[in-house]
Amino acid sequence: MGSGILDRLQRKERVAAIIKILSDNPNKVFSLGYFSEFFGSARSTLSEDIVLAKKVVEYLGCGKIETISGAAGGVKYIPGLSDINKDAFLKELCVTLSSPDRIIKGGYIYMNDIVFSPEISSKVGLILASYFIEKNVDYVITVETKGIPIALMTARALNKPLVIARREVGVTEGSSVSINYVTGSSKKIQRMSLGKRAITKGSRCIFIDDFMKAGGTANGIIELLKEFECELVGIGVLVEGASDKKLVSDYISLLTLETVDEENGIIKIYPTKND
């Protein structure tokens, strides 16, 4: 592939191309041989290019480029946000979600425009993924429907497949496994299903959702995964309700919804302090 215009690229152009290729394929390892063939350049030259690419990514605060040694080694891009950018984003999100016109009866707030915004959900996915990068995840799982955009962006950042549990069995899913579970807040019996072909036995999964009130859905996911002999190794949500007793204890939330005062039109929401 290293012919024509690629042979004539200057260093700054190769660095830009390397960053583009890596960022389009997060958490995918590329060998130096791949880039050497692609650009028609010596590996020693590409090693210097990658050092510069690392510095650019770190300066921009958009993750890091990691070099992996060994025969099966290479280089990969781990997406993320710097602490400064993350804090600023979450604080801005709190301001947006604090608007009184977002109040919905029952102690909820309207978030559809937030979770279905590609710009916002992609950043949320980057932040959530950063907490699970060392978990050796095989799948990201969520429940239809509002958690899907955030879960998809988390899956993209981790470069792992997304699996969606359904409220009702779909014809196109093939044979499925279904369970009943009790919601944590209203104590209602709900049903969720997952196609038998959707996930491999013995996989490690994380559950991602937009909102957690008492954790009944997360608890249901745990029980559903047991039917596949799979392990839930992490839970991540955008917003958790602070006043509700949780059915799960080990989870990550980005924002905490402390108060929804319908009478006075007050919403108190703030970034969660995760250890």
From TrEMBL:
User: What Gene3D superfamilies has UniProt attached to this entry?
Assistant: 3.40.50.2020, Winged helix-like DNA-binding domain superfamily/Winged helix DNA-binding domain (1.10.10.10)
* InterPro entries referenced in this protein's UniProt entry, alphabetically: PRTase-like (IPR029057), PRTase_dom (IPR000836), Pur/Pyrimidine_PRTase (IPR050118), PuR_N (IPR015265), PurR_Bsub (IPR010078), WH-like_DNA-bd_sf (IPR036388), WH_DNA-bd_sf (IPR036390)
Which UniProt keywords are listed?
Answer: DNA-binding, Glycosyltransferase, Transcription, Transcription regulation, Transferase
Q: Which residues form the Bacterial purine repressor N-terminal domain?
A: 10-79
SUPFAM superfamilies (alphabetical) = PRTase-like (SSF53271), Winged helix' DNA-binding domain (SSF46785)
Q: Does the keyword Transcription apply?
A: yes
- Per UniProt, residues of the Phosphoribosyltransferase domain are 133-253
Top-level lineage group: Bacteria
List the molecular function annotations (GO) for this entry: adenine phosphoribosyltransferase activity; DNA binding
User: For this protein, what is the EC number?
Assistant: 2.4.2.7
Query: Which GO biological-process labels does this protein carry?
Result: negative regulation of DNA-templated transcription; negative regulation of purine nucleobase metabolic process
Q: Which CDD domains match?
A: PRTases_typeI (cd06223)
Report the PANTHER family cross-referenced here: HYPOXANTHINE/GUANINE PHOSPHORIBOSYLTRANSFERASE, PUR OPERON REPRESSOR
Oligomer status and interactors: Homodimer.
Family per record: Belongs to the purine/pyrimidine phosphoribosyltransferase family. PurR subfamily.
Q: What name does UniProt use for this protein?
A: Adenine phosphoribosyltransferase
Q: Which organism is it from?
A: Thermobrachium celere DSM 8682
Q: What is the lineage of its organism?
A: Bacteria, Bacillati, Bacillota, Clostridia, Eubacteriales
